[in-house]
Fold this protein.
Amino acid sequence: MNQTASDILTQLRQISLFGELSESELERVARYTRERRLGKGELLFQRGDVAHGFYFVTEGQLKLGFSSAQGNEKVVEIVGPQQSFGEAVMFMNRPYPVFAEALTDMSLLHIGQNVVSDLIDQDPQFARKLLAGMAVRLHNMVRDVETYSLRSSTQRVIGYLLQQTEEDGTKACDISLPTSKQVIASRL
């Protein structure tokens, strides 16, 4: 079932990127926003598809990754609720370099490129927030390259598990993995 315009507007209000927009600007963004629902295992887009906007996950989880001709897969990123993706590719006017596949049943918002470009032209603060979000992801990818290059597989697994804990490390804790071990292994 598709969300109504009112439901989309409510979702947009919860996204910090749009927090400083006026009600009329938010309504305009909502007109260029579409909800997408995917079932587990369903592809959102394939490598080579053209980007016409960016996505914001409202519930569920997906993976961004590469596949080889032999069927091997490398997960680049796992994206969950309240996270966006696809902004950089949208601005480059290039096809997606990765595929996006739902790891769970999920819901996302697709925010159109034209309305984002208009907001950047009109609102420097919006542009800075968008750039800050992309800079954080770039920083995380550089950190990942460092980890892949300089740490053993055991060290990468331990580092990942430590990131999943909410404890201060002084006592035993339970760790719930956010996705399957196979996807995590591909990510690490």
In short: Residues 140 and 183 are 18 Å apart (CA to CA). The chain has one domain: 5-150.
